Amino acid sequence: MILQTTQIAVFLGLTLLIALVTYLYCRGRRGSGDAEQEYFLAGRDLKWYFVAGSITLTNLSTDQLVGMNGNQMALLVWWELAAVVGLLMLTFLFLPVYYRYNCTTTTELLERRYGNPHIRAVISLLFLAGNVFIFLPAILYGGSLFMQQMFGLEHLNIYYLAIAFALVGAAYAIFGGLRAVAVSDTFSGILLLSLALFVVWSALKAINFDFSGIPAERLTLIGDYDSPIPFPTLLTGMIFIQMFYWSTNQTITQRAMASPTIKEAQKGILAAAAIRLLIVPPIIVLPGIISYKLYGEISNNKAFGMIVSDLLPTALTGAFAAAIAAAVLTTFNSILNASAALWVCDVHETYIKKNPNVARLTLIVSMVMVALAFIMFPIFLHAENLINLVQELYGFLSMPILSAFMVGLLWKNVDAKAVIIAVILGVFLYAFFTRVWPQLPGGNYIHMMAITLIFSVLTALFLNKTVFGKKAIWDAHNVFGKNKVTAQ
Q1: CA-to-CA dists, residue 141 to 189, 245, 299, 366, 374, angstroms
Q2: CB 356 within 8 A of CB 36
Q3: How many CB atoms lie within 10 A of CB 438?
């Protein structure tokens, strides 16, 4: 496809418009004299619609649109349907606890529950490792690949596109803080969801709403053992993956913790859940399935870009490019902002300097993280499917991290050192599983993640009793019940 003046004009116009509207809205709206609160929690005055918009677009990026459609099958919709459950867990189980403890980061809750700052720092470093070496490079790669495919830029080195995304995304996170990130997310989300639904409609019209000729295994929601999501995994690791991502992940929960009241935050999360249930499922699987009928099996995550490039009018391809660029930028800057919060609040202020210059430190940390993200970039260049690779890699960290939250919230009188050891052992167990389990009958990384979580929880309780001489006391009724939460 030859790049046309109309495309580039629409693309640049909409991209600049979103930036301008975000700037005008955020100008003069600093609601807190506390730089840390302003940068990382938007002064704690984020309205519910910005919470909903930011949560939606922070998650919905090219790893979903490109990666899930790249599978060319309906089965991947389970990620989004299960996400609704994860959002409900955040709304009614985890969020009240974060608000009672007045947390800035999710890991601050761990320090309060265990009475130990070191476990907070360890888990933060694991979060940072996942953000820097998995999510950031995956987002940059997915967005750059989409731009290459839609604009016919295969001759342009993909690294140039990735660098452009990284620099602009970092500017939002560094100079605007969470407020600018959340506002731009919301405006961009309206554009992206509208155009994505139009893509679905155009794709359906292209096949006259006729799915005949598409193999049954690409339309079924019951995955067999060789599929990306075997059906039994919905009852094992899938629910824990969603619990981890939506309820403990700083990048997501940071938005919910930035509202003035818990009720305002809960309204935003429930709105995000409704969007996830009603709008997101068709846009992340139908274009991919239809691309199979139009083009056959396509490798290297190109299905979505081909659909958009071939079926949309020229002006709308430019608009959609702007929407995708916005999705990439907002997801990228959201992760950067959350990562900076983890470093500044959980590591730097504890071990290096108590009251740093937040703006300057955020700038330095963000630039270092962007540079490190490119170290992992080559791995994604050879990914057979983007979303599957991201989920599998993050299994190294997600379940061990979740085990620290589960033990801390369900029990008290647990030594933090027992949990730290269990978390580290959980990482090694998952690494072992990735080498051995896939060779076994019915082996799947989602099952491995459930087993890793159970192992990590039981190991922490075992070490707490046998090595550190403490008896864990069940405390879930105080944490999730009506009683006021108290630190251990």
Answers
A1: 20, 21, 15, 18, 10
A2: no
A3: 12
Q: Assign residue 469 a region: left if phi > 0, alpha if psi is -120 to 50, beta otherwise?
A: left
Helix ranges (DSSP H) in 92-236:
95-100, 106-114, 117-130, 136-151, 158-206
Amino acid at 5: T
> pLDDT of 45-63, one tens digit each?
888 999 998 898 877 776 6
DSSP for 77-93 reads HHHHHHHHHHHHHIIII
Task: Using the CB atoms, write b or e for 13-47: b if 16+ within 10 Å.
Answer: ebbeebbeebeebbeeeeeeeebbbbbbbbbbbbb
- Give the Cα separation of 406 and 281 in Å (integer): 29
Handedness of CA 452, 457, 462, 464 (dihedral sign): positive
Residues paired with residue 411 on neighbouring β-strands, in sequence order: 474
Tokens of 301: 């995550």
Report the amino acid identity of residue 467.
V
Q: How far is CA 488 from CA 408, 422, 480, in A?
A: 9, 19, 15
- Output DSSP code: residue 152: T
For the chain, which residues score pLDDT lower than 70? 1-4, 28-36, 39, 62-63, 150-151, 172-177, 299-301, 383-387, 437-443, 482-488
In the chain, where the domains are located: 5-104+135-341+351-392
Please state which CATH class domain 5-104+135-341+351-392 belongs to. Answer: mainly alpha
Secondary structure letter of residue 441 according to DSSP = T
